[in-house]
Specification:
Blueprint: H1 8-20, H2 22-30, E1 41-46, E2 51-56, E3 59-60, H3 62-66, H4 71-74, E4 78-83, E5 92-95, H5 96-112, E6 120-124, H6 129-141, E7 144-147, H7 154-163, E8 168-172, E9 175-177, E10 180-182, H8 184-192, E11 200-204, E12 218-220, H9 221-225, E13 237-238, E14 242-248, E15 256-261, H10 262-277, E16 284-287, H11 294-306, E17 310-314, H12 325-333, E18 337-340, H13 342-349, H14 354-357, E19 366-370, H15 376-386, E20 393-396, E21 430-433, E22 445-451, E23 461-462, H16 466-473, E24 481-489, E25 495-500, E26 504-507, E27 510-513, H17 514-522, E28 527-537, E29 541-550, H18 556-573, E30 582-586, H19 599-606, H20 622-631
Parallel strand pairs: 4-17, 6-7, 6-8, 7-14, 8-11, 11-12, 16-17, 16-18, 18-19, 19-20, 29-30
Antiparallel strand pairs: 1-2, 3-13, 4-5, 9-10, 14-15, 15-23, 21-22, 22-24, 24-25, 26-27, 28-29
The structure holds adenosine-5'-monophosphate-propyl ester (PRX).
Adenosine-5'-monophosphate-propyl ester binds near residues 399, 484, 485, 500 and 506.
Length: about 625
């Protein structure tokens, strides 16, 4: 593949080419992939209309690029290492040839079950090889996968399945998570009560727990894969046909089904994987994210497989059976590139350092961070104790919407700097905007982080709601993609992401919109209104603080019960990750004269920054602020 950076001058040289003539640049990269028909035009994009197309006219199948293309040269090489939840369970080494057969078998099953090109298939699976097989099987036949993180609740599944009118759900009987066993099929059964579009449920046996199988609807996958061929022709899809839908929280309303299309996403994830991780033949690469998030889609599955890499899928959690698990897995599989989230680093840094020291981590070459800002302490700990001051840290900034990494150091080329994502990747043009929409020139400045020119990996729309896509990302600053983050630029031109500027809070690296949580709380009969804000938390990065006004006075004991009920309903409707860490009942919430809740002030109070609340005199009810401060517990 062209334009893989090997030193800093080369980075600048390639970047100049990419920005000067993006069509030539991306066209040259695309030449090394397998096409059924080449494109007519590399890029055709209008950022003012949010109308973006790459490689129009081209025909391809991404699985031929992820699998078939590698068979001659590396059919016997491991494509996927599966490390199970329990260290006692033998790891699986799945070769490219075996991956080909498994994917094609599932693809044939999907076809037999009536799934056709363009149909949506919901996948609700733990981190097991079948998750990869099923996603790729969908892509093989041109179906659109919609993976839902297997920690989400029935309500969350139903709303996503209904939004995309999925015809099928692929799930497991149960899942292992540390010492816990979860009945996934039971959760799906409940979701299905409200999901009329689903005709078939394919069940993967994992924990062998007892499940209810509904006649005519539910089938075990393994019963079907036994009788099908290991070959399935790769369906021809157009460059801009959707590859998948992945839901992400919005600051308001229901989750947004981000649509990623085939060719641009393929080229972008492949190219950024090669540059950001500097993967070399025979390396073992491990990203600890769940495939249910974009990080897993792009950098556990598609990016690595497109590069013919060996990618590790880990089913477990960092604390099971002990806090050394990550380090034990790195030693066991001689991992070379390790990519994780700051929240995991912070929680592991709190453990006894002997957990790290008893393992040989000398295989490591590159360390990655993703999902939220990494604080200096966590960065230093990662650099010294895990990378032994040898391994560059790539602090990668990107989003579900961007498809792939946009800002990151290129290891061994870009000098790293704690907490800085450093330079944009090739072809990416970030700008910092003032509130009134003026591009901030020069270095040493800050603003809202926008991207000025299109790149192949950007999501093309929100499923069934192009207006929302336009309004959310392209209306604040016409002609620019607005990320929802703020950033600063240092004198060297390095970017540091400072956090969200909307009502999205990143908790343990998970993107949570506050509005859906507030809606859930407000469903309690006694709740008058509520406001959720994030506050700094030493492990999670941010935790959620709920300010809740009740319709009438209740006893302390009833308040305690209400807190539990609120968190239970949040866990039920959204997922346990969205539970509130702190709840404060308030007499009223501070409001502007137009009646809007002043979240800025609540954020400061939650963070214990009471001394600089700013001017509160213009509020409708300034006394509410004092009352909240006086009653705040910690
Ligand atoms: O606020 C930024 C934060 O995560 C958001 C995107 O979340 P999501 O769509 O779930 O994708 C996460 C994985 C790519 C961003 O708007 N974020 C992500 N990476 C970083 C980050 N914040 C600071 N530094 C990062 N490296």
């Amino acid at each position: 593949m062209k334009y893989i950076v090997k030193n800093l001058p080369e980075y600048f040289k390639f970047q100049e080419k990419a920005l000067k003539d993006p069509e030539r640049f991306w066209g040259a990269i695309a030449e090394s992939f397998q096409w059924k028909k080449k494109w007519d035009k590399v890029m055709n994009a209008d950022m003012h209309k949010a109308d973006i197309k790459w490689f129009e006219g081209a025909e391809l199948n991404i699985t031929e690029n992820c699998i078939d293309r590698h068979l001659d040269e590396r059919g016997d090489q491991t494509a996927i290492i599966f490390e199970a939840n329990s260290p006692e369970e033998k790891a699986q080494h799945i070769t490219y040839r075996k991956l080909y057969e498994e994917v094609n078998k599932v693809a044939n099953v999907l076809k037999e079950q009536g799934i056709q090109k363009g149909d949506r298939v919901c996948i609700y699976l733990p981190m097991i090889p079948e998750l990869a097989y099923t996603m790729l099987a969908c892509a093989r036949i041109g179906a659109i996968h919609s993976v839902i993180f297997a920690g989400y609740s029935s309500t969350a599944i139903a709303s996503r399945v209904n939004d995309a009118s999925c015809k099928m759900i692929v799930c497991a009987d149960g899942s292992y998570r540390g010492a816990k066993e979860i009945n996934l099929k039971g959760i799906v059964d409940k979701a299905l009560e409200d999901s009329p579009s689903v005709k078939t449920v394919l069940v993967v046996k994992r924990t062998h727990c007892k499940v209810k199988m509904k006649e005519g609807r539910d089938v075990y996958l393994e019963d079907l894969t036994q009788n099908v061929s290991v070959h399935c022709p790769a369906e021809t899809v157009q460059a801009e046909d959707p590859l998948f839908i992945l839901y992400t929280s919005g600051s308001t309303g229901k989750p947004k089904g981000m649509v990623h299309t085939t060719a641009g996403y393929m080229i972008y994830t492949a190219h950024t994987f090669a540059n950001v991780f500097q993967y070399e033949k025979d390396d073992v690469y491990w990203c600890t994210a769940d495939i249910g998030w974009i990080t897993g889609h792009s950098y556990i599955l598609y990016g690595p497989l497109l590069n013919g890499a060996t990618t590790l899928i880990f089913e477990g959690v960092p604390s099971y059976p002990d806090h050394n698990r990550f380090w034990a897995v790195i030693e066991k599989h001689k991992v070379n590139q390790f990519y994780t989230a700051p929240t995991a680093i912070r929680s592991l840094a709190k453990q006894d350092i002997k957990h790290v020291e008893k393992h040989d981590l000398s295989s490591l070459k590159v360390l990655g961070s993703v999902g939220e800002p990494i604080n200096v302490e966590a960065w230093n700990w990662y650099y010294h104790h895990i990378g032994k001051e040898r391994c560059p840290i790539v602090d990668t900034w990107w989003q579900t919407e961007t498809g792939g990494i946009l800002i990151s150091p290129i290891p061994f080329s870009t000098p790293t700097k704690a907490t800085f994502a450093t330079f944009p990747l090739l072809g990416i043009q970030p700008v910092l905007m003032s509130d009134d929409g003026i591009e901030q020139e020069g270095n040493l400045t800050n603003g809202k982080l926008c991207i000025k020119t299109p790149w192949p990996g950007i999501a093309r729309t929100i499923w069934n709601d192009h207006k929302r896509y336009f309004d959310t990302y392209f209306s604040a600053y016409p002609g620019y993609y607005f990320s929802g983050d703020a950033a600063l630029r240092d004198p060297a031109g390095y970017y540091r992401i400072t956090g969200r500027v909307d009502d999205v809070v990143i908790v343990s690296g998970h993107n949570l919109g506050t509005a859906p949580i507030e809606n859930t709380i407000n469903e309690q009969e006694i709740v008058a209104e509520s406001a959720i804000v994030g506050y700094p938390h030493d492990v999670k990065g941010n935790a959620l603080y709920g300010f809740i006004t009740l319709k009438r006075e209740i006893s302390e004991q009833e308040k305690e019960q209400l807190k539990i009920a609120i968190n239970n309903s949040i866990a039920d409707q959204i997922g346990p990750i969205a539970k509130l860490s702190k709840i404060q009942f308030t007499v009223s919430l501070p409001k502007t004269r137009s009646g809007k809740i002043m979240r800025r002030i609540l954020r400061k109070i939650a963070a214990n920054e009471m001394e600089n609340l700013g001017d509160t005199s213009t509020l409708l009810n300034p006394e509410a602020v004092q009352a909240i401060i006086v009653n705040k517990k910690d």
